[in-house]
Amino acid sequence: NAGVMQNPRHLVRRRGQEARLRCSPMKGHSHVYWYRQLPEEGLKFMVYLQKENIIDESGMPKERFSAEFPKEGPSILRIQQVVRGDSAAYFCASSPGPGSGRTEAFFGQGTRLTVV
Amino acid sequence: GNSVTQMEGPVTLSEEAFLTINCTYTATGYPSLFWYVQYPGEGLQLLLKATKADDKGSNKGFEATYRKETTSFHLEKGSVQVSDSAVYFCALSFSGGSYIPTFGRGTSLIVHP
Question: Which one of A74, A84, A114, B38 is least enclosed by Cβ atoms within 10 Å?
Fold first, then answer.
C-alpha cells in the first residue's frame, strides 16, 4: 500500500514563475492537508481539502496561492509569480477523514521549493 | 482554538541518556494525541499515538502517556541512540467534524556518541 506521494521532491523556480506541487494521498484517504515548513520553524497549516472541495484555507496566503483536489488525480498546490520568500518545504498529508475512527495523518516526503 | 506547545530545542544528549520532551496542549473537547518524527530531508513519520485519557502510546522504545488532568503528552525514552537524532513534533487531532491536525513547533534532538 503506497504511502502519500509528493512530486517533485525538489523544485527550482526563478522569481515570477509558477510552481505546481502534486500530492497523491494514500489509497482510501479522501482528505488532504498542505503544510509549509520554513528552515528552523515548525509546520504551518495552509489548506484542508476533500475531493472537489476546499474545507479550510485559513492558512493560505490570499494572493498567488491556490489549491485543488479534483475528483480524479492528485491534489495540486499552485503558487503563481513565486518570490524568494516562498522558498520552503511543502508537505502534504492525508487521512481517511471523519467517521473512519482514524485520526492520524500520514505525510509525504515533501517538495522542497527553491526560488532563485 | 486548539494549540500544542513543545519545549524548545535543541535537546542535546549523550548516547544512552534518558530523554524527555515536554508537550502540552489546549483543546476544546478530547483530542487524540500524536508524536511524529522527522529525519533530515524527510517527511514526518507517525511515531506513536494515544486516543483517550491515560492511554500510553509506545513505539521503538519511545513512550508517551495522555494526561488529561495536566493536558500533557510528554515523550520519553530510557536510552537514546545516535540514530534517534531528529526533530520531534507533538500534535493533536479530532475524530469528528472538520478537523485539522495541529502541530507544535518541533523539538530538535541531537544525540552524541
Answer: A84
